[in-house]
Amino acid sequence: MDRLAIYLAVLIGSCVAGGFLIAAFALDYYSIWAFVVCGVIGLIAAYPAGYWVSRYIKRNDPDFNHRKPRQSDGILPDPKAPEI
């Protein structure tokens, strides 16, 4: 996962969870389970949506360099490495 996808996953996950929470409140669900369910939905949707939006942005950017960097050893990407 690249750096842009990580940032987008955080933003998109919170927006999705917030949208579902507003919908739950509009339907008169004011319990702790509404928060839990909406948070889980946001967590599940965050990674795929962030990755997809990141790929879409990079595919449509004419100035983006699409060279593949070397594989990283850890979970987080190397800050000195080029974007993938």
From TrEMBL:
Residues 61-84 are annotated as: Disordered. Keywords: Membrane, Transmembrane, Transmembrane helix. It comes from the Bacteria. The chain crosses the membrane at residues 7-26, 32-53. PROSITE patterns: PROKAR_LIPOPROTEIN. This is CTP synthetase. It comes from Roseovarius indicus.
